Hints:
By secondary structure, the chain is an alpha/beta fold.
Amino acid sequence: MTPNVQKSPSTAPGALVTGEFAFSDANFREIARIAKAEAGIDLPQSKATLVYSRLAKRLRALGISTFSDYCAEVRENDEERNSMIAALTTNVTRFFREPHHFEHLRTEIIAPLADAARRGTRIRLWSAACSTGQEPYSMALSVLSVLPEASSLDVRILATDLNPHVVARGKAGCYQREELQDIPPGLRSKWFETIPGEDRSGEMQVTEEVRSLISFRELNLMGSWPFNGPFDAIFCRNVVIYFDRDTQSAIWTKLARLLKNEGALYIGHSERISGPSNALLSADGITTYRKKGGKTS
């Protein structure tokens, strides 16, 4: 049998990245165009190697031999287009990542509202890029550390992401035991339970009481937002960094306008607010902002 020897990408006309698959400038420009149109992701050519390394896994998984064929697949297949966007935006996530945010949420937002919540006041929080659920569950655990009866009160958390697969995993609330190491032991023992079955011995599930606090939904931040808030706190971390400067400014402003007065916005460690949002928000800690007084929207 004659082996199938692929031409080296470095010798292919228009090659942009050397690797297993030929990746031309035209391929990159088409992927960048789709990413921009679908999710607002800004991909300068300096990101070509990153794009190649993340999407090469998709070509292998689909049994596709060229990036030209992959681009054709993305044009025709909505599901693969979503998978491509997810591959390009994958971030590390874990419980209580950036712990100072959750401490601020607990002490500066939830604790001052606790008595009012017990009298029926509404509390609303939003995880605007929830990934596989660790962030909104960390938010819920922070709430429960102050209000253990939160599920019987008017307290709710909205958790959204553009990737339906991670939204489904978040909704299920099932995690490997090693993923729970950053959760304080008291909260872990109280709000997680073992999943029956030998084949799931390494997993634990968030209890129904915690899951009932959270509504998981698919949402593209570049599209319309079918809700009005206002929110007491919004987590939007490590997602706006993928957008160009003008889009970042627009997103920060939309988020700020959905906050209650004195509500909190938590952003990624490498992100900074910009544009009109600077007039609406004031710094209140490391990558933590509060909505200034005045009209809520």
